[in-house]
Structures are given as C-alpha cells and as structure tokens.
Amino acid sequence: MANHEPGWELYRSFLAVMREGSLSGAARELGMTQPSLGRHMRELEDALGVPLFARSPQGLTPTDMAHALLPHAQTMASASAALRRAATTQQDTVAGVVRVTASEVIGAEVLPPMLADFRQQHPGIVIELSLSNQAEDLLRRDADIAIRMVRPTQEALVARQVGNIALGFHAHKRYIQANGRPKSMADLSKHALIGFDRETAYIRSMRPPGMPYTRENFSLRTDNDMAALSAIRAGFGIGVCQAGLARRDPALVRLFPELAINMDTWVVMHEDLRRSAPARALFSHLAEALIGYAKLSSRPSAKQSAEIRR
C-alpha cells in the first residue's frame, strides 16, 4: 500500500528512465545526477508499494507493473504540458504557446510557409510542431490543433473541413528519360515503384480498385512518407505524392493526371480552446491557408490539362 501520494517529479523521472532505458541516459535528459534519479525510482516504488524495475549489474529492467503504469504516466505528462501552455497564454493579447500536430509530409513540407506567414502577424505566439502519422489525442490534450485526414467524430472537438488534397503518381524527369513513361496503369508493374511496407486500412480505402500499386510490385518499400517523397525526388522510381508539392518542382512529372486520389482534410482543435486567442488565431490561419493549398493541388496545371485532352 502506498505510504503517500507521489509527486509529479517522481513520475517525470520514471518516464525518462522508461524512455531512455537507463538511469544514466535519463539523468542526462533531465539534467540530474544518476544517484538522485535512482533515489527518485526508489521513492516512487515505496510510495506505490510495487517494484517497477528489476536491478542487475546490467542495469534496470522494467517490470510488468512498470509497463502497465507507463500510459498513465504519459497522460500525466500530456496534462502537465497542456497546463504549461495554458499558463503562458494571455487572453487579452495574442501571445502564448500553441502545439500543432500533423502528418510527416504535411508538417515538414506544407505547413512551414504557412507558419512563417503566421509568425509575421503574431510574433508573440510560440508554436510547437509535432510530426507523426499517428493521430495524437486532442481530448487528452496531447496537442492543441491537429491536421487530420479523416473526419473527427468526438463531440468535444471543433473541426473545419478544408477540402480535398489531391494525390497523384509522380516521377522525376531523370527516371522518365531513363525508363520511359508508362502509357497505362497496367504498365506500372513494369516500373520501379515506391510504396508502403505495411498496408493499412486507410491505404486500402484510398487505392482505386484494380490498380497494380501493391506491395509485391514495389521496388522500394517504406512506411515513412518523407522517405518515399525523397525517393521520388531522387529519381528512384514512380510513387504517390501530393500534387501541390509536386507543382513546386518542375522536374517532377505527373503521371495519369486524369486519375484523382483525394485526401479529405480537416483542421481540428478541442472546443475549450475557443476561449484561447492564440489557438483561435492559428486555427483560423491554418484553415484558410490549407483551403488555398487544397484548391491549388486539385487544379490541373496547363501542361496536365493538355495531357488529359490528348
């Protein structure tokens, strides 16, 4: 039985040890000494009345109880971060901290110029940008604003649809010059294709039926979208990327421009943040900017229009 309620600093130390896998690594992350961190672990175990680590000359090995407590400690860390962001927000002026989460490609390729424009208008707002293809929990306040590719269903979230971001098959000019241009979808199986390693339900829902864009046909398999985009740009082969990004690079060639693959895109935040001036400002800015980006990516270029008519 616990002797007393453990303080947050003990859980923070516990999270660092679980994350780093050792006392020395956790101590470096937190700026503490290793003996102090070891004392934190003993205090937490005494307070909870359960062993969290098996100790040996090789270091600490988390027990089953430690793994069971980990998601709860992560929730505490998310709540602590949300409290810090809320504490820095001044309601009378547009200043504070707003945490945004987005997929790897959206966060690394699409949002930066939009955030740069926002910075010119609101220099008092600090932006934390978290990139992950796994949806962070806005209800748990892991982030304040999210860019999502599926419509949110939770009632406590405020969502604005910004439109469909078009995807298409693309290849670098070097690849086309060296290997020719596929004349039909069936020809794709004869080319070096760049695609996923693990097929998810979302990927299956996006792929038109009968398309030979399947794992067994891929010459490069990766679940990292940035790696796939880089491979297309490097001339490795043919892959799927956002049409809006490809338009920025004249060396990328759109294949089968008549083929439409669309990502339904939403900007989402927790309804409680409607009272936060910084969150409201960034939410509105990103929604308007992404609406423009979605419209541009869905509009064929003059060259593509000519190809469609041929």
TrEMBL record:
One Gene Ontology BP term is: DNA-templated transcription
Alphabetical keyword list:
DNA-binding, Transcription, Transcription regulation
The Gene Ontology terms for molecular function here are: DNA-binding transcription factor activity; sequence-specific DNA binding
One Pfam match: HTH_1
InterPro entries named among the record's database cross-references:
LysR-type_TF_proteobact-type, LysR_HTH_N, LysR_subst-bd, WH-like_DNA-bd_sf, WH_DNA-bd_sf
Q: Which residues form the HTH lysR-type domain?
A: 12-63
Family of this protein: Belongs to the LysR transcriptional regulatory family.
Task: Please give the name of this protein.
Answer: LysR family transcriptional regulator
Which species? Dyella dinghuensis
